[in-house]
Amino acid sequence: MKKFIAILLTLCLILSLVPMALAEGAEPITVTVFRGDPGDQPTEDNKIYKKIEDELGIKFEIEFLAGNLDETLGLKIADDVYPDLFDGGNSAETLENAEVLIDLLPYISEEKTPNLYKHIYTNDRIKQLTTDDGKLYIIPNYGINYNDQIQNYCNGPAFFIQKQVIAWNNYQVPKTLNEYFDLIERFLAENPTTPDGTPYQGFAILCEGWRHFCLINPVQHLMGRPNDGEVLIDVNDPGFHTETFIDKPYAKAYYAKLNEEYHKGLISKDTFVMNYDQYIAALSNGTVLGMFDQTWDFGTATASLETSGMYANTYLALPLVYDPEYVDGKVIEEHYLNGTVMNKDRGFGISTSCKYPERMVQLMETLLSDEWQKTLQWGFEGEDYSVENGRMLMTREQYVNRSDAQWQRANQAKAIWESMPKKQGTMDDGNAWDPGNQPEIYFEQMSDYDKEFYSACGVKKPADFFNPPIELAPYGEAWQIDKAPIDIDYNDFLAIQDRWLPTIITCDPAELDANWDAFVAEITPSATVYTNFMQEQVLKLVEQATN
Amino acid sequence: MTAANLHVKKNKKRRDIAFPIVNTIILCLLMFVTLFPVLNTLAYSFNDGMDAVKGGIGIWPRVFSTDAYKELLADKAVYQAFWISLSKTVITTLLNLFWTSMLAYALSRKEYVLRKFITTVLVLTMYVNAGLIPNYLLISTTLKLSKSYWVYIIPTMFSCFNMIVIRTYILGLPEALVESARIDGAGDLRAFFQIILPLCLPVMATVALFVAVGSWNSWFDTYLYNGSKKNLYTLQYLLRMKLATTQNSSNAANSTADALASASRVAPITVRSAISVVSAVPILIVYPFLQKYFVTGMALGSVKG
Amino acid sequence: MSTVTKAQSPKALTPKKKAGFFQRLGRQWQLMIMSVPMLLYVLLFNYGPLWGWLTAFQDYQPKKGLAGSPWVGLDNFKFLFGREDFRLAIRNTLAMSVINLVLGTVSAVLLAVLLNEVRNRAFKRTVQTVTYLPHFLSMVIVVSMAQNIFASNGPINQLLVSLHLAKEPIFFLGKGEYFWWLVGVINVWKEVGWNTIIYIAAMTSIDPCLYEAASIDGAGRFQRILHVTLPGIKSTFMVLLIMNIGHLMEAGFEIQYLLRSGLTMKYSDTIDVFALIYSFGSSKPHYAYGTAAGMFKSVVGIILLFGANKIAQALDEDTLI
After folding, report:
1. Which of B8, B26, B106 shows the shortest C-beta gap to C34?
2. Contact flag C320-B34 (C-beta cutoff 8 Å)
3. What is the end-to-end Cα distance of chain B in Å, rounded?
4. Which DSSP state fits C168?
5. Is the same domain home to A139 and A192?
6. How far apart are CA C198 and CA A132, in angstroms?
7. Over the stretch A76-111, which tens digit does the pLDDT of each residue have?
8. Average pLDDT, integer, range C2-23
9. 10 Å Cβ neighbour count for C253?
C-alpha cells in the first residue's frame, strides 16, 4: 500500500511537472542560431540555458563566427537553408539586402507582445527602425534605454592622455588641441624617458584595418560633433548640410599639426605600420603618453596597467576641440557624448527558413520581461547577487566571476542575450540594468589612485570632464547608414585616406601643401559620390523620424 | 703508394675536414635564426597573460604561468575535438595514401593508354578552382554532406600534388623491377602492391606527413560545413574559435569594468602562442617515426663515408 | 600463378602495334581499376563546381540563382581591368610569387644538399626537426614577430646601424618597395625546412653506388654534389618547378593581409586580397567579382602550366603531364 501511494505521488508529481515544462503550450524545439561575433560554446549544464529549456521548451544550437564575417555571411546567404535566429554582426545589412530575414511587424502587437510593443513603439522609435517600405527586420540589441541613462565614463571616442601627465601639470586638464600637444611637449622635455630609461612616445596613431578610425575620425570631434562616421553634419541647418570633413581645410589643420609634432619627435614612424597587438603592447608598457581612440578599444591595455599597479600610466579621456585660430576664430563647444543611439540593424533577425517564427518572437517577448532581464543580466538572486534595502549588490567575487570566461560558459546565456532585444538604463525601482553601471559597484571597483586623482581634478567620475550628452539628432548617428549602394566608391574613399594621411603626417613640411592638394584631388571624386549619398540618406532619415 | 697519390689524398682530407666544419656552422646559425622565434613563442605561451602584453619577452618566460594552457585544456570540448581530429586525420591519410599511390603507379606506366588524358585532367585540378561559393554549394546543397563527419573524409581523398610526388619517385625506380614481375606473370595490381609499394616507403612517409599535417591543421572545412555541430568540431577549429574570442574580448564587453576584468584573465598573445604550441605537438610526436624513412638512404651512404 | 595471368602477361609486355585503342584498354583493366575511380571522383569534386564560372558573366544573386540572375556579359571583367588597383594586384601577385619561387626553391635545395652532407645522424635529425618547426606557427604570430624584428628600433635595424651599414634605421615595414622582399624573406624563414622534406626524400632514392663510383673516380665533395646529388633530384626539381610556374598567380593571402598598411597598400595587395575586399567587403556581396578574378587566375595559371610543360618537353626534361 505504501508502495502504491509512493507511485501515485510520483505520478502526480510527474504529471504536474509536464504542463509546467510546456507552459507555453508548445513542444520542445531546437533552434539553430548564428552569431556574427566569435564566442565560446556554453557548457552542457549552463544554468540559464537550462532554465530556458525547462520553462520555454527551447534549446539552442549555436554557431559562432570563426572566419571573416563578410565572407561567412556571403556563404551562408548562398546556401538554401539559413539559421533560424540569424545575427549578422557588424554586417547585418547584408542579410536584409539579401532578403534572408522576415518582417517582424505582423507578429508584434500590444495584446500579444506587450513588452516588445512598448520596447519599439515608445517615443516613436518604430519610425527610425523600419525600412523604406515599412518593414522591421531586426530589433536593436543595444541602445534602448529605460528610465535614466547612467553615464559614469566615456566609452566612446576621445583624445586620451596618461594620468601622470595631468598630475604633473597640477591637475590642469587641456581643453584644446594646442593645449594638449603643448602639454605633452612640455612633459616630454622634462621626462624624455620612463624611470627605467625607455623613451616615451608622445602620441600614437593606430592605423590598422577597421581600427583606422583612430587616424581618420578625430576632426569631426574637434569640430564639436559626436560620432557621425566620416561626415560632418550641421544639425542646426534645416537642410542638415552634410559634408565629408577629411578633404576640407579645417581637417588639414589637424594633419598639419600632426606633421609638426612628427618633426618634433612626438610621433614615431612605426605607428603607421603598427598592428593592434603592438599598439596594445606599447600602451601596456606605459610608454605612450597620448592617442585618439575609443575607450573599449584598448581595455586590455588598461587592465594590464592596472594589474601591474601602473595606475599613473592609465588614461584619461579628454573632449578636445580646435583652438579658435584653426576655425576662423570660432569658439567650439565640445559634444563627444551623444544621446543614446539605437543600435539599428544589429541583433537577431528571424530567417525565412525558420519554421516557427511566431515562437521566436514570443521568445524575444518573454526574455524581455523584467524577471527574465534580471536573470539574463544579473543572474540568480542569492547566487549571483543579493538585495539589500531594495538595492541589488554584488560581492567582489560575484562581480569578478562575471568576467571569467569559464564561469560565463556555465552561468550566463551570453550568446543569446547579446543579440536579443534588451533593457538598458535603470529599472523602475532605480537599480541599473547593467551591473557594471550600478553606482555602488562602479565606485567600489575604482582604485585608490583613481579616487584621489579624480578628487584632485575636482570631479567625481571621468564623465564629469565631458559635457552631458546632447540630444540625439533625428537621423541617429550617421555611421549607421548602410553604404551598400555606393560601396565601391566608399571603399575608395577610405583607402585613399589610409594611403595619404600617413604620408602627409610624415612628409617634409615644405611638401605638405603639395601633398595635401594631391590628396584632395585624388579623393574628391569618391568623396563627392559619398557626400551626395549621405546627404540624401540623412534627409530621408530626418523625414522618417519627424513624420 | 706514390707521392703524387699521397698528395691528392692529403688535399682531399683537408677539404673533407673544412667542409663539415663550415657546414655545421651554417646549419647551427640557421637553427639559431629559426629557433629564436620558436622558443619565443614557447616562452610567451608559458608567461603570465597580463605581463606578456607588455612584450619584450625573449626565450624564457618572465613571469611563469600555465594559465594559457589551463584555459585551453579546461574546456572539455577540447578532448572531443581532439578525437575528431585524430580519427579524421588517420582515416584521411590512409585513404589518401591508398588511392593516391595506386593512381601514381598507374600513371607512371608509359604503356597505359589513358595515361596522358587522366594526368592532364588531374593536374589541371591544381589550377582550376571554381571558387568558394560553387564548391560550397556542391558539398552542402547538392551532396548534403554538411553537418556530418563525412564532410571531413569524402572531399579530401585525393591530392594531385601528392600523386605527382609519388609518381616522380616511382619513375625514378628501375623499370626492370616491373618487367621482371611481369615475366613472373604478375598483373599490375600485384606488381604494384608486391614490388613497387615496399620500395616507396620513403616517399609514402613524406606524403603521409603532408596529408596528415594538412588534415590535422585544417579548420576551414569545419568552418564551412560543421560550424553549428559542436560535437563535430575539430581541434584546430576549436582553437581558432578561442583565438577569435580572445582577440575580441575587449570590444564585446559593454562596460569598461567588464572589459578590464575579462582582459585580466588571459591576454591574446599567450593564448595564441599556446595554440601554436598545441597544434604542433602531435606532429612533433609523429615526425620521428616517419623521419626514419627520410634517412634510410643516408644510412647506406654513411657506411662507406 | 593462374594460367590467365600467364596468358595475359606476354601480351601486355609486347603489345601488338596495331591493337586498337579499346583492345589495349581492355588489356589494361588493372590499371583502369587503379585510376578510373579517382578520375570520376575528381570530375565530380573538382570539375563539377565549374558551372560556377558562369556567374562571372552575371550579376549573381543567390536568391535568384544561376537561372534567375541577370546576365551582364563581360561587365565584371571590364570592371576589374578598369580598376588601377586590380592591375596593381596582378603586378604584385606576379612579383611576389616570382620572388617566393626563386628564394623558396634555392633555399630549400641548398639546405637539402647541406643536410645530405651531414654524417652525424643525430645532428642532421636535430637540424631537420628545428627547421620545420616554423611551418607550424600561425601566420598571425609569424607576422607579429616579423613586425617587431623589422621595426625601426628592432634588432635588425640596431645591428645595421651599429655596423654602420645604415646611417639611420631603415623603414622596412612602411616602404612599399621593400614589401615584396619582406614577404619573400618571411616565407623562406617559415617554410625552408618544410620544403626540404621532399628533396631529402628524393635524395634517398639515389643509389649509394653512384657516390661510391664517383669517389673512386676521384670526385671531391663538391663534384659529388654537382654530379650525383643534384642530378639525382633533378626530376623532382623540374616537376616542382613546372607545378609552381602554374601557380605564379597564387602569391598568398594571409601574410599580405596581415602585413599591409596604408603606406604599403600599392605593393601589398594580391589578387586574392583584392577579391576578398571587392566581393565581400561591403553589405552587398559582389560574388561575381570574386569569381571573375578567380577565373582569370585559373586561366592564366593553366596557360603558364602548359607553357612551362612545353618548354620542359622541348628541353627533353621531365615533365608534369
Report:
1. B106
2. no
3. 22
4. S
5. no
6. 61
7. 998 889 999 999 988 888 999 899 999 999 999 999
8. 53
9. 15
Question: Which 8-state DSSP code applies to residue A32?
Answer: E
If contacts are CB pairs under 8 Å, which of residues 90-149 in chain C contact chain B?
Answer: 111, 114-119, 121, 123-138, 140-142, 144-145, 148
Over residues C298-302, the mean pLDDT reads 93
Q: Are C255 and C92 in contact (CB under 8 A)?
A: no
C23 touches chain B (CB under 8 A): no
Contact A121, A108 (CB under 8 A): no
Q: Which of B109, B133, B272 sits opposite C31 (nearest CB)?
A: B109
Chain-chain contact of C38 with B158 (C-beta, under 8 angstroms)? yes
How many domains are there within chain A?
A: 2
Task: Identify the pLDDT of residue C321.
Answer: 77
The reply to whether C212 falls in a domain is: yes
- The residue among A407, A437, A467 that closes a domain is A437
Q: Which of A77, A482, A485 sits opposite C62 (nearest CB)?
A: A77
**Which of residues 281 through 300 in chain B touch C, CB cutoff 8 A?**
283-284, 287-288, 291, 293-300
Which pLDDT does position C311 carry in this prediction?
Answer: 92
Range of the domain at C26: 1-43
CA distances from A476 to A29, A147, A222, A422, A441 (A): 38, 19, 20, 19, 31
Q: Is residue C157 part of a domain?
A: yes
B131 touches chain A (CB under 8 A): no
Q: Are residues C164 and C310 in the same domain?
A: yes
Q: What is the ipTM metric for this complex?
A: 0.81
**CA separation for the pair B176, B153 (Å, rounded):** 37
Q: Answer for the pair B263, B249: CB distance below 8 angstroms, yes or no.
A: yes
Got the DSSP string for A331-360?
A: PPPP--SB-----TT-SEEEBTT-S-HHHH
Asked, for residue A56, whether it belongs to a domain, the answer is yes
Q: What is the rounded average pLDDT of the residues B253-264?
A: 39
Which of A79, A303, A418 has the CB atom closest to B140's CB atom?
A: A79
A182 and A126 co-located in one domain: no
The reply to whether residue C262 touches residue A274, judged by beta carbons under 8 angstroms, is no
Contacts of A274 (CB under 8 A, 6+ apart): A204, A206, A207, A208, A282, C147
- C-alpha distance across the termini of chain C, in Å: 35
Residue-wise pLDDT tens digits, A231-272: 999 999 999 999 999 999 999 999 999 999 999 999 999 999
Confidence of residue B264 (pLDDT cuts 50, 70, 90): very low
Q: Which residues contact C101 (CB under 8 A, 6 or more apart)?
A: C244, C245, C248
Strand pairing category for A145-146 and A242-244: unpaired
Residue C296 and residue C148 share a domain? yes
Q: Which three cell numbers stand for residue B127?
A: 589550377
**CA trace torsion A436, A440, A446, A449 (10° rounding):** 160
Give yes or no: residues C9 and C99 share one domain. no
CA distance C202 to B206: 10
Which amino acid is present at C88? L
| A9 and A128, same domain (yes or no) | yes
Which candidate, A159, A316, A303, places its Cα nearest to that of A222?
Answer: A159
Of C237, C242, C35, nearest to B104 by C-alpha is: C35
* Distance to chain B for C189, nearest Cα, Å: 7
Same domain, A176 and A321: yes
A273 interaction partners in chain C (CB closer than 8 Å): 147, 173-174, 261, 263-264
Chain A hits for B266, Cβ within 8 Å: 405
pLDDT digit string (tens) for A188-220?
A: 999 999 988 889 999 999 998 888 999 999 999
Q: Provide the pLDDT confidence category of residue A48 given band limits of 50, 70 and 90.
A: very high
State the total domains in chain C: 2
Minimal Cα distance from A91: which residue of C? C283
Q: Which residues does chain A have within 8 Å of residue B239's beta carbon, measured at their own beta carbons? A: none
